[in-house]
Write a structure and sequence with these properties.
With 709 residues, the chain is α+β, with helices and mostly antiparallel strands. The chain has six helices and 50 strands.
Length: 709
């Protein structure tokens, strides 16, 4: 009996050992399979973020399989290094702390740590390749996994990562907002818990719109407030408290802009500070609101401030020329913001519990190829900052045969815009960036280049005060005798609303001021009469609060100076940022007219220089500051850049027939244009780039700051 019992015990022991061995083998096989999947994601698919997640799963499920766990940590560190993130250091340190007996992996970890100690900390910008158009606003979800966009009067939620890797987003999903249309420039905000989204509805009347809150799962939006947000896009920006119970916004009241809060159930808004302010943003705990100082209803600004969410004494956090777009770090210990006067930088400043700054500011420079950082879209827990940027623009001057075909570059680099032929057709005058011979120009100067291409030469200016040209509206047209240029310029310290008409010898010298309109009038877009005796220009009344378009009329003044006479009336709706141009035969003035006060679409009209009833020549879409007119030398046709800025449209002023002239160019947008004196060629400015892009900023905190967080 004892022998039987002994045999049974031995058999059971062997069976248990066999089962244990099988289980261990299965666990090893499972760990190896999972590790192999992670390696495939990293090395074959190049999807580093998904590979990191799978390696972390290996660690979580097989921490006792020491060789495989150590390998997983080593690979995690390698992935983070490729992404430029400081988490690589932490992975190697954990490997040495927990798995130092795995000699091969530990040796590699020590070597990589030593190399990392010698690497200068460098922020990483990663572009998210959004294939569709990107509006002026976007917001990262609180978990950093999605972004909400406004497009075609609708809201879309898009995963930041898709199947092609971390740079390619997933498929966007339309958020149901019922029959409520979304403003295309919408201010957008998530609640801190990710359950609610606030947005601006379509404009009701000029400057006014409703603010709504909708579930992040979609549904019937709740109207919170009807707001006068003014005309500037920065005034649209709104914020929701962490649990989505309170909305913060800016509103225009009696010509001033203030920040307020209101319950999402409605009620009376509570103004938070007496000073003019905009862009309020709740802190992650909901106790503090960051905002920026405002000037001129969003056209100018100042520093970055904080104030208790219930109201109280504001605290200046950082001085800035034009602070904008503040976002809080997920722990509420830092604020990132922009300064539009230094558009290629992102600033990050430590914040104390009282909303005051507690340390030195971190400055991150945008990488090459980015012209400007326009908006910060959020700062989720994984320490990435989302940003909408503007890609760098490159300008050139092109000539094109009158019937279309292949364009020729005649000047490249700098900022060549507003090109005009000289009367003899030999040179192209334009505005461009300053050079050493510019004299007393400020920012831009009048310059010229051979019509066949070559070196750009500045027309030097000698003036008691520097004169500033704008990139549109300057006119810079050459007199019929070729001796004088007429232009519109601003005299600092006069404000941006005031501009005057000047003449200048073609070879440079001292300018002569022809008009002296008082504020709030601006004189610009000057042009010569064909006999050189008179100058026509647009006089715009700059609105006080910029919530409405400016009223404009056409005036004519003698080239010798004197009192200008008005040609049009308010009923003619002269486009305030559009040109006037005299026909070569001297019989007509051409200009753009609005369909209504706030319209961007309108008509092309002509009117006799002595006044009278204007005549509509054609309907015109999307009139804007860089849309210009050019007469044919025989005064029978007018050219202007099309609504898509890719073609030149030519219309017969008597027959009304319209012809599209193709440039043969795929990328440049047409800025301004002119018709050669012999009628054989056009000249125009072409701009490439300038597109909105979405980027993620990573690895921007120094190691000490990252560890503290």
């Amino acid at each position: 009996m004892k022998n039987v019992t002994l045999i049974l015990i031995i058999a059971l022991t062997m069976a248990a050992a066999l089962l244990s061995a099988n289980a261990s083998a299965q666990q090893n096989e499972s760990a190896e399979v999972l590790l192999g999947a992670a390696l495939h994601q990293e090395e074959v698919e190049g999807n580093l973020e998904e590979a990191i997640k799978t390696y972390q799963k290996v660690l979580a499920e097989h921490p006792d399989n020491r060789p495989i766990a150590a390998r997983a940590l080593l690979q995690i560190g390698g992935c983070y290094e490729k992404l430029g993130k400081d988490e690589a250091r932490k992975a190697y340190e954990r490997l040495l702390r927990d798995y130092d007996d795995q000699l091969e992996q530990a040796t590699l970890a020590r070597s990589r740590l030593a190399a990392l100690e010698n690497v200068i900390h460098k922020p990483i910008f990663r572009k998210i390749r959004i294939p569709t158009g990107l509006s002026v606003n976007a917001r990262l979800s609180p978990d950093g996994q999605k972004v909400i966009l406004a497009y075609d009067s609708e809201l879309w939620i898009m995963p930041l990562s898709g199947k092609l890797g971390s740079e390619f987003p997933g498929a966007p999903v339309k958020l149901n907002t019922g029959d409520v249309e979304v403003d295309g420039q919408a201010g957008l905000a998530w609640s801190g818990d990710g359950k609610w989204i606030a947005f601006n509805g379509e404009e009701l009347k000029e400057g006014y719109q409703r603010i709504y809150v909708v579930s992040a799962d979609g549904g019937k939006p709740r109207q919170v407030h009807e707001n006068n947000r003014g005309a500037r896009i920065v005034n649209y920006r709104i914020s929701l408290s962490p649990h989505g119970k309170t909305l913060a916004f800016s509103s225009v009241d009696e010509g001033k802009l203030h920040i307020s809060t209101i319950s999402i159930d409605g009620g009376i808004p509570k103004q938070l500070v007496d000073a003019q302010a905009r862009e309020p943003v709740f802190s992650p705990d909901g106790k503090t609101i960051a905002y920026v100082e405002d000037k001129a209803l969003g056209r100018g600004g100042g520093g970055l401030w904080t104030v208790p969410a219930d109201g109280g004494t504001p605290t200046l956090v950082a001085k800035a020329g034009h602070a904008s777009s503040p976002v809080w770090s997920p722990d509420g210990r830092m604020i990132a913001f922009l300064d539009y006067e230094k558009g290629r930088h992102i600033y990050i400043i430590p914040i104390g519990k009282g909303g005051e700054h507690t340390g030195e500011m971190i400055t991150v420079d945008a990488p090459e190829g980015i012209e400007e950082v326009r908006l910060l879209a959020g700062w989720p827990p994984d320490n990435k900052i989302g940003a909408i940027t503007i890609s760098q623009q490159e300008f050139a001057l092109y000539t094109l045969p009158e019937k279309g075909g292949k364009a020729t570059i005649i000047a490249h680099g700098g900022y060549p815009v507003q090109p005009r032929w000289s009367p003899d057709g030999k040179r192209i005058f334009h505005t461009n960036e300053l050079d050493k011979g510019s004299g007393d120009w400020k920012r831009l100067a009048i310059a010229s280049v051979s019509a066949e291409g070559g070196k750009v030469a500045t027309v030097p200016l000698q003036s008691e005060t520097k004169i500033r040209l704008w990139a549109y509206g300057a006119g810079n047209r050459i007199s019929p005798d070729g001796n004088t240029v007429v232009f519109a310029g601003q005299k600092p310290p006069e404000g941006p609303h005031i501009m005057h008409i000047w003449t200048l010898p073609i070879d440079g010298g001292t300018p002569r001021q022809l008009t002296d309109a008082p504020s709030p009038f601006r004189d610009w877009y000057p042009c010569w009469s064909p006999d050189g005796r008179n100058i026509a220009f647009v006089r715009m009344e700059a609105p006080e609060n910029w919530t409405v378009t400016g009223k404009a009329n056409i005036y004519i003044i003698s080239a010798d100076g004197g009192e200008p006479r008005q040609i049009t009336s308010e009923s003619d709706r002269v486009f305030d940022t559009g040109p006037v141009l005299w026909s070569p035969d001297g019989k007509l003035l051409a200009y753009f007219s609005r369909n209504k006060d706030d319209a961007v679409d309108g008509t092309l009209k002509v009117i006799p220089p002595d006044g009278g009833k204007p005549r509509i020549v054609a309907k015109v879409e999307r009139i804007f500051a860089n849309k210009e007119l050019a007469w044919s030398p025989d005064s029978k046709r007018i050219a202007f850049n099309g609504s898509d800025n890719k073609i030149i449209k030519v219309i017969s002023i008597n027959e009304g027939s319209l012809l599209d002239i193709k440039t043969g160019l795929t990328d440049p947008n047409i800025y301004n244009l002119d018709w050669s004196p012999d009628g054989n060629r056009f000249v125009f400015a072409g701009a490439t780039g300038g597109n909105r892009e979405f980027w993620l900023l990573e690895n921007f905190l120094p190691p000490a700051a990252s560890d503290a967080k």
